[in-house]
């Protein structure tokens, strides 16, 4: 029985000397991160398709049970709007091939302008995708969260793909108290929380606060949902975000611990790699 947890990235300036060794070369940071968490969001692939050699390095640094949820490039989802991007998709799939089973799902994040009237385009796009991958779709148009008919139509279109919720309710529950929170208020989607799993591999993105206590209080709902998913035989992946992400690896492990307290048979996470503290010299 597995619950995978992770963060929005595998390296961060504020993790040096805390979660990752201070002087670790870039080509080894993912390996160190993988001792803290066993999943990661592939947000960098949204901005550019990585070189195949880079992806081969990712594969070398992780075990086969590590999960990458890789975002499709924005040229496909935001610029081409899922049409006429066959060459870009082919190049992307070729680049990520070295990951093999580590590619847990390909993540189709759609812009807020993508609404119910565009579902035909999404349906046609999903039909053209190779059956060798799992797919996960994130929508941000409020109609999908507030109109039951629109939500039902989207679920029909997904037909085997997962609907990824991005839960920002903790962030917007009260006014921001840090610069990172104020920035997140202007950029993150403000939509109702959704927790219906469509497949046996649900994926959750949870955004807390820069205050640890508020983050932990806010994820209580998901601890309950994930516990039930596990008891139903599902294998979820949960990504823990905060506006500054300074403590995200430790928070992801704490979330796993809280679920494991309710489901003792859950497979534990690996032991983190020891980290030497930062030094001045």
From TrEMBL:
InterPro entries membership: DUF72, UPF0759_sf
Any Pfam family: DUF72
Gene3D superfamilies assigned: Protein of unknown function UPF0759 (3.20.20.410)
Highest rank taxon of the organism: Bacteria
Cross-referenced PANTHER family: UNCHARACTERIZED PROTEIN YECE, UPF0759 PROTEIN YECE
Protein name per the record: DUF72 domain-containing protein
């Amino acid at each position: 029985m597995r619950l995978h947890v992770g963060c929005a990235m595998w390296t961060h300036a504020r993790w040096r000397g805390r979660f990752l060794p201070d002087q670790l070369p870039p080509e080894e940071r993912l390996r160190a991160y993988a001792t803290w968490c066993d999943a990661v969001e592939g947000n960098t692939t949204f901005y550019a398709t990585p070189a195949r050699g880079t992806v081969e390095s990712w594969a070398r640094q992780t075990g086969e049970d590590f999960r990458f949820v890789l975002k499709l490039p924005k040229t496909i989802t935001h610029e081409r709007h899922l049409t006429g991007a066959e060459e870009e998709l082919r190049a992307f799939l070729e680049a990520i091939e070295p990951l093999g089973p580590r590619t847990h799902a390909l993540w189709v994040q759609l812009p807020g302008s993508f609404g119910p009237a565009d579902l035909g385009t999404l349906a046609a796009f999903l039909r053209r995708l190779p059956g060798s991958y799992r797919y996960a779709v994130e929508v941000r148009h409020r109609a999908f969260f507030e109109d039951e008919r629109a939500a039902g139509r989207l679920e029909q279109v997904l037909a085997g793909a997962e609907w990824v919720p991005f839960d920002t309710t903790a962030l917007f529950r009260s006014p921001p108290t840090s610069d990172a929170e104020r920035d997140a208020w202007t950029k993150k989607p403000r939509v109702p929380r959704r927790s219906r799993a469509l497949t046996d591999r649900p994926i959750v993105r949870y955004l807390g606060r820069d205050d640890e206590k508020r983050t932990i209080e806010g994820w209580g709902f998901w601890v309950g949902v994930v516990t039930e998913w596990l008891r139903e035989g599902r294998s979820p992946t949960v990504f823990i975000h905060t506006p500054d992400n300074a403590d995200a690896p430790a928070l992801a492990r704490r979330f796993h611990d809280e679920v494991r307290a309710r489901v003792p048979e859950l497979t534990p996470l690996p032991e983190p790699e020891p980290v030497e503290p930062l030094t001045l010299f």
